[in-house]
Amino acid sequence: MKPVVAIAVVLGLLATSVVAAPTAGRALPAPVDTATAQTYLGELKVAADSNDPAYSRKLFPTWDKIDGTCNTRDEVMKRDGTNVVTGSNCIATSGNWISPYDNATWTEERSLDIDHLVPLKEAWLSGARDWTTKQREAFANDLVRPQLVAVTSKVNRSKGDKDPAQWLPPLTSFQCTYTKAWIEVKHYYALSVDPKEKDALTSILTKC
Fold first, then answer.
1. pLDDT for position 28
2. What is the pLDDT of residue 157?
3. Nearest to 169 by CA among 185, 144, 149, 192
4. What is the DSSP secondary-structure string of 191-205?
5. Rounded to two decimals, what is the model's pTM?
6. pLDDT tens-digit profile of 15-44?
7. For residues 31-57, b (16+ Cβ closer than 10 Å) or e, as one string?
8. How far apart are CA 147 and CA 141, in angstroms?
9. Rounded to an integer, what distance in angstroms lies between the CA atom of residue 109 and that of residue 114?
10. Is pLDDT of 5 > 70?
11. Strand positions, DSSP E, the chain
12. Which residues 6+ apart lie within 8 Å of 137 measured at CB?
């Protein structure tokens, strides 16, 4: 390679960051197995939801800075895609993503939302109203548990703050993974389940 060309290549690499993420995890950390999920579900407190005091999204700070200019959202976009190219601000400019909720494929970051698998309002109704702001911030930016996932924007908005008794991913083959992830997150954060929610989770697990 000629010196001038080599310099140009180096400068090009410095201008953008290319991150290839593995596809095996299918967009979020693998949740616990079915047997563990059943055990966890049995340990969850069953209680009616409460919205007193009233929920506000502002009570759950997002998105935290993770590394340099990269925040939690940026990290999920890089993790959940392949051949992801980011600008100097860490925002993805291109890549390939598969939304696990509907199996749709995307090449533009703006086509996806980052879903809180257990929605922030659902967490509030089932116990997070008693947390500190720091605890709610940790929940809203959790990259360790299967709680954050890049999904088709339209599907995410149809979900809203519904629990599994009211909404499940339209891709049937992902519903078991979704259910086990839901239970794992609720168990880790000691959140309650309401009666209909528990019935739905129990029913889905019998098919996993």
1. 83
2. 97
3. 149
4. --B-HHHHHHHHHHH
5. 0.86
6. 333 333 333 334 689 999 999 999 999 999
7. bbebeebbebbeebeeeeeeeeeebee
8. 9
9. 10
10. no
11. 17-19, 65-67, 70-71, 81-86, 92-98, 105-106, 112-116, 148-152
12. 60, 61, 62, 64
For residue 169, give the nearest of 185, 183, 152 by alpha carbon: 152
How far apart are the C-alpha atoms of 96 and 105, rounded to whole Å?
7
Confidence of residue 67 (pLDDT cuts 50, 70, 90): confident
Query: Phi, psi at residue 61, to the nearest 5°?
Result: -60, 130
The token duo for 194 is 């309401």
Beta carbons of 110 and 41 less than 8 angstroms apart: no
Phi, psi torsion values for 55, nearest 5 degrees: -65, 145
Q: 148 near 116, Cβ under 8 Å?
A: yes
| Domain edges within the chain | 3-205
